[in-house]
Amino acid sequence: MNTVESLGYLKGLLDGLDVDNKNGAKIYKAIVEVLENIVDDIDEIYEEIDSVEEQMDAIDEDLAAVEEYLDDDCCCDDDCDCEDCMGEYELECPACCETIVVDEETVAEGGLECPNCGEYLEFDLDGEEEDKE
Prior knowledge:
Elements (H helix, E strand, L loop, with lengths): L2 H14 L8 H48 L15 E5 L6 E5 H6 L1 E3 L6 E3 L2 H8 L1
């Protein structure tokens, strides 16, 4: 028997014994009343737990959507090898110290004019190939 069933059984026993005419009837009825309050409190707790579980499920779904969004976007950290960053290079212009992002084609051309200050930047790929070997 669960708590609610046990309480119903106890109430039935109390009613069937006609305790009203005996000493101690008030205490038995008070005990049953306290047990009823406990059962009501437990029911409220279960309802709150269900509500919290629903909220946690919603938060979990939202978090999964955020994680998916972040996984789809470029992380762009130093060790990034995502599709968006492959073939892109960040460099700092020695004249104005601004960061420039260039693609492989621009690097293969051997240089470009800094879009910030106009300084012509040359790329030395010979040193890169030696490092790879």
